[in-house]
Amino acid sequence: MRRLALTLAVLACATTTAARAETRLYANTCYEKESGDIAGYVVTVTDARPHPAVALSWTDGDLVPPHPGTLLTTSRPGHALSFIVAMPRDETHDRFTITFRGHYDHDRLIGTLTGLPWVGRPETVTLKRRTHDEAFDPKDRVDTGYCARTH
């Protein structure tokens, strides 16, 4: 009986901690008018202790699933953020590492992405806080955000 009570207490603490971890998405995704493809970037930040967890999605034809990043720096309450995403070699790219260095500004994440093999130069981005649906299926965003910049 004591073992059951202890197990339940541990599970309750773990569940409470996980429930408190807020996940925020910052994106500039949109649909390109001509192709109908999604374009842009999504940064996912989950407030975990002692440091947040980060992931990055981008378009390389299709919007790729989020890839976990390795946190380089962060400041709480959260003004600065930098991380890397190391990608193994695949059929379209050699091994590459994407770096993000930026900061929070109200409901936006502003920074620079480097190491993007499909761009070939650093890219400055302004990512607005969005819901999951708005970030990964931006139905009403045609030729806005990232798409408006690339024409």
Report the β-strand fraction as a percent range.
35-45%
- What CATH calls the topology is Lipocalin
- Number-wise, the strands total 12
Name of the CATH class: Mainly Beta
Task: Compute the average pLDDT.
Answer: 78
The domain count comes to 1
Structural class determined from secondary elements? alpha+beta
Percent in helix: 10-25%
Query: What distance separates the N and C termini?
Result: 67 Å
Shape descriptor reads globular
Count of individual helical segments: 3
Q: Unreliable stretches, pLDDT < 50, 5 or more residues?
A: 1-18
CATH architecture: Beta Barrel
Describe the biggest sheet?
Answer: 10 strands, antiparallel
Task: Please describe what this structure looks like.
The protein is globular, with a radius of gyration of 18 Å. Strands 1, 4, 5, 6, 7, 8, 9, 10, 11 and 12 form a 10-stranded antiparallel beta sheet that branches. A two-stranded antiparallel ribbon has the order 2-3. The protein has 3 helices and 12 strands, in the order H-E-E-E-E-E-E-E-E-E-E-E-E-H-H. The chain is an alpha+beta fold and 151 residues long. The protein has one domain (22-149): Lipocalin (Beta Barrel), CATH 2.40.128. The protein has helices at 2-20, 132-136, 146-149; strands at residues 23-27, 30-31, 38-39, 41-46, 53-60, 62-63, 67-68, 70-74, 80-87, 96-105, 108-114, 123-130.
